[in-house]
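Re: that chain you flagged

S.,

Sorry for the slow reply, it's been a week of failed gels. I finally had a moment to sit down with the sequence you sent. For the record, here it is as I used it:
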Amino acid sequence: MDNGTERTMTAMRAIRAKCLDCSGDSRMEVHQCPVKDCPLYKFRYGKNPNYKPREYSDEQREAMRVRLAKARENKDAQ
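Prediction finished late last night. Pasting the structure tokens below so you have them in one place:
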């Protein structure tokens, strides 16, 4: 991909690509995968099933907003 749309190969994308390769590039075969003892089985959709979004308090959100605004100001000043 030379048009600037190249995506970084993350671990999750690599696992998804491996599962697709193993199933003959068939998404349906990945979905119906019978190899439940495969170490990649839980990750076959390219998502980490153990990931839980972090919960932020209102104070943490405000602190992040202030830091982001300051960083943007510094970037614009350069």
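What I noticed first: The chain has one domain: 11-77.

Talk soon,
D.
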